[in-house]
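2024-03-11 09:14:02 DEBUG pipeline.ingest accepted 1 chain
2024-03-11 09:14:02 DEBUG pipeline.ingest length=288
2024-03-11 09:14:03 DEBUG pipeline.predict start
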Amino acid sequence: MDGPAAVELARRRPAAPLAGIVAGIVDLSERSAGPVMRRQPAGTLVPVVFSFGSPLTVDHLSEGEGANRSYGSFVAGPSQGHATTRHPGDQDCVQVYLMPLGVRRILGVPGSELARRVVAIDDIAPDLGSALADRIVATATPADRLRLVETVLTRRAEATRSTPDWIQWMWHRLASTSGRASIGRLVTETGWSHRYAATRFRDEIGLSPKEAAGVLRFERATAGLGALPLADLAARCGYADQSHMTRDFVRHAGEPPTTLAAVKRPTAYTALGIKDRHAADPQRRPGT
C-alpha cells in the first residue's frame, strides 16, 4: 500500500526548443512518517530522475532488468510492464518526463538501449547524471532547479540530430489515435517494407509499433476509468471486449480496471498536471 505522505510539487512546461521531446519537468519533495511503496503502471513517457535525497529502491519489475536495486539518479526505459518502488520516507528529486522521441536527443542513446531496463544515468550519460545532480543540490529553490534542468536539456537537444521524419510521423499517428491507427497502413505510407519499418521504429522508440500501440491504448483506457461503464470504455478504446481490456490492464498495471480505478494511482501525466496527452504530442506528416 502507498504510505501517507506530504508531497510538494513544482512543475515546468518545457520551452519551445524541447517541444515534442520533453513532456514536462517536476521538482518533488515528499515526506512520510514511514516507508512509501508505490506501484507504477506502464506508460509512454520515459522518466529521468535526478535525485538529491534518499535513493529509490526498485523492488519489482514485471518485465525487464534493474529490480532489487536502489538508485540515486536513474532512467526507467520504455516497457509494457509495471514496477513496484519504495523509499524510506523522504524523497527529493527533479523528474524529467521524456517523450519517446526525446530519448536519443537528451540521453544520447536510442530507446532500444534502455527498453525494459532501469539504469543509473551515470551508466549511460555520465556528464548528465551525478554532475547535474550536484548542481541541483547547490540550487536553492524549486523554480531555480527547474530552470537549471531545462537549460541543460535544451543545450543537449540542440546538439543532437532529430529522429528520421518518417519514424516521428509514425509515432505521432499512433499517439494521436491512442494506438488505434492501422500499423499496416502507416507502414505503407512510409514507403518502407514492414520488416524494415518495424525494426527501425523499435530501435528508436524501444517498443515495436504493436507494443507501443498497446501501451497507448492502455493509457487512454486508464484516463477514461470512471467516465463510462467498463464494457463501453473497452469498445471506445479499441479492445475486442471487456475481458480483453482487463487482461491488458493486468499486464500493464498489475491489477484489473476496477482496482486501478479505486486506488487512483498517479501516472506521469498526473504528476505533470496534464489532462490531455494529445496536447503535448502534435502530429506530423512524413517528410515535414
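2024-03-11 09:14:41 DEBUG pipeline.report The chain has two domains: 6-158, 165-280.
2024-03-11 09:14:41 DEBUG pipeline.predict end
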